[in-house]
Amino acid sequence: MWRVPTSISPKVADEPRVKWRRTKWVFTRRLCFGGLAGALVLLCLSVTPSLLPREELMQGVVTGAAAAIGYGLGSLLSSVLRMVIRREPSRAVKRRAWWALGGSAVVMVGLFLYLGVRWQRDLRTLMGMEPLGAIDWLVIVVIAAVVFLILLVIARIVRGATRALIRFGDRFWSHTVTVNISVAVVALLLLGFAQGVLFNGMITFINNACLGTNQYDRRDVRSYAISPYGLQ
């Protein structure tokens, strides 16, 4: 006679918990010092003047992507320095460095945000466009934060997938061969995705975002070009 199981085995019950432990680092891992320093630098550079005014969506995406790229470069530099300099700084030094980074972030972000507002206002006035208001800049900050977090999660997922591929390949080949093959496979997949999807989507997005900036009198451009005093 068949019996209906009344309880779940501990191994089956713990499977979701084990899977969560393996993947939760993607969302819960702490941000590294070098990555945040690099993100701060490129974030500030992303609000410097451009040839054409940027709409809210465009500026937010540019700032978020720049911060993500800066975080990646800073993390890479931090990893290289850790391999070269084996000695770990003391807790006091780390604490001071974090306080210095936090103070620098407050000053630099505030300064470049103020300068970015002025630069965009002057450029949009020159093009005969309405200046961006406080709500528009708040939207830019929100979009930049969302884009940064999305790119950061994607980068961590790619890193985790590469490690999983390496662990799988270690069953059949040496670790050195597995690392080279795994990195090459992931790099080719990312390159194909970037060329086939991201590049075309980026071009379309830039064209749509710049439509509003092209709606000005072209006669003004010609008059500015022939003026001996430059843009007035």
Brief characterization of the structure:
The protein has helices at 10-13, 15-23, 25-28, 33-45, 56-84, 91-126, 134-169, 175-209, 218-226. It is mainly α. It has one domain.
Structural write-up:
By secondary structure, the protein is an all-alpha fold. It has one domain (32-226). Helices cover 75% and strands 0% of the residues. The chain is built from nine helices and no strands. Helix 7 runs antiparallel to helix 8 (175-209). The longest helix has 36 residues, at 91-126.
Based on the model shown, name its key terms:
single chain, 232 residues, mainly alpha, 75% helix
Per-chain topology:
Blueprint: H1 10-13, H2 15-23, H3 25-28, H4 33-45, H5 56-84, H6 91-126, H7 134-169, H8 175-209, H9 218-226
Helix pairs in contact: 4-5, 4-6, 5-7, 7-8
Quaternary structure type: single chain
Describe the sheet with the most strands.
Answer: none
Number of helices: 9
Overall morphology:
globular
Distance between the termini: 94 Å
